[in-house]
Amino acid sequence: AQTVTQSQPEMSVQEAETVTLSCTYDTSESDYYLFWYKQPPSRQMILVIRQEAYKQQNATENRFSVNFQKAAKSFSLKISDSQLGDAAMYFCAYRIYNTDKLIFGTGTRLQVFP
Amino acid sequence: ETGVTQSPTHLIKTRGQQVTLRCSSQSGHNTVSWYQQALGQGPQFIFQYYREEENGRGNFPPRFSGLQFPNYSSELNVNALELDDSALYLCASSLDPRTQYGYTFGSGTRLTVV
């Protein structure tokens, strides 16, 4: 079965500090894409960062970076210099190459304290 | 450039009724996917439409159906509503069905079935 597991239902971080959100997935495929989405109270899913499985180099987008461990099927998200606006639900997702659906985890609620 | 817009934002229906949810895709996107997000869960793939044809379907019964129009806007129809259909319904558009990029999501329609 294709599944995504986010084992941290809630995380908290102080403003300006760094936090890491965990994600593991299960697939027998070798070609796929991995994503982190942010869902604020506005409910819109916003793409934070993406990673192609064939790339060994970890993706970075400003304060957001990932630690992709393909053999371990792990895809964690690191948020540096956390800001109040980072508070949201974060969903890890993947899509097998050449298929049409995203498979999401159950999400991690991130709280940011001043 | 407009994003993905969904209407209505909230809806209350009675069990057994039918409902139609609407989505306007982002300019230039020809593919629309629909997801159901139950409370406290990650989104689940319902189906995808590409150039007015259903292009893929998740594990949802036939009473969930859809349409895509020539302007690439889309509708999700649910017949014989059940209490478990209460959820946030998200629409996502993309440049093509199996884009290597992420999807652009709308803010969803919150459906409550009573």
Inertia-based shape of chain B: globular
Our Rg estimate of chain A from Cα atoms comes to 14 Å
**Structural class label of chain A:** mainly beta
User: What are the segments of chain B in which pLDDT stays under 50 over at least 5 consecutive residues?
Assistant: none
Could you explain how this protein is built, in words?
The complex is a heterodimer of chains A (114) and B (114). By secondary structure, chain A is mainly β. Helix content of chain A is 0%, strand content 53%. Chain A is built from no helices and twelve strands. Chain A has strands at residues 3-5, 10-14, 19-21, 24-26, 32-39, 46-52, 60-61, 64-69, 74-79, 88-96, 103-104, 108-113. In chain A, strands 2, 5, 6, 10, 11 and 12 form a six-stranded mixed β-sheet that branches. In chain A, strands 3-9-8-7 form a four-stranded antiparallel β-sheet, with no helix packed on it. A two-stranded antiparallel sheet of chain A has the order 1-4. Chain B has 114 residues and is mainly β. In chain B, 0% of the residues lie in helices and 50% in strands. Chain B is built from no helices and eleven strands. Chain B has strands spanning 5-7, 10-13, 19-24, 31-37, 44-50, 53-57, 64-68, 74-78, 87-94, 104-105, 109-113. In chain B, the strands form two sheets. In chain B, strands 2, 4, 5, 6, 9, 10 and 11 form a seven-stranded mixed β-sheet that branches. In chain B, strand 4 (31-37) and strand 5 (44-50) form a beta hairpin. Chain B is globular, with a radius of gyration of 13 Å. The A-B interface holds A 4, 33, 35, 37, 42-47, 50, 52, 91, 93, 97-107 and B 33, 35, 40-45, 48, 55-56, 58, 88, 90, 92, 97-98, 100-108, 110.
Give a quick summary of the entry.
The complex is a heterodimer of chains A (114) and B (114). Chain A has no helices and 12 strands.
